[in-house]
Amino acid sequence: MAGIVDVTDASFDIQVLQADQPVLVDFWAPHCSACRSLSPTVDEIARDYAGQVKVVKINTDDNPQAPARYGVRAIPNLLLFKGGAVQAQIIGNVPKMKLVKAVEQMLG
User: Fold this and answer.
1) Which class is 4-107 in CATH?
2) pTM of the entire structure?
3) In Å, how far are 2, 6, 50 from 47, measured between CA atoms?
4) What does the longest C-alpha to C-alpha distance in the chain come to?
5) Domain segments of the chain as ranges
6) pLDDT below 70 — which residues of the chain?
């Protein structure tokens, strides 16, 4: 998980909302097979956009507050933040190009 930061409910605001660059948040859980399938794609995004986008993961089983705050009811669920505000949401195990498009729009 090069370049990916694990966050918790306690560190979410500092790591995500107060970040000085755009953030891709991967809401996931160990029991979620789609989450495990999407993980290599999230890793690639972290590598491809290193220095431009911060990529973090939050385990929804261990950290229920942040998912509840953002209405995360299904996983995998990816939220893109810029300036502390949600810019986009992607739900499900999606192709890499869908993530790339969302990240590029956020950066553009």
Assistant:
1) alpha beta
2) 0.96
3) 7, 15, 5
4) 35
5) 4-107
6) 1-2
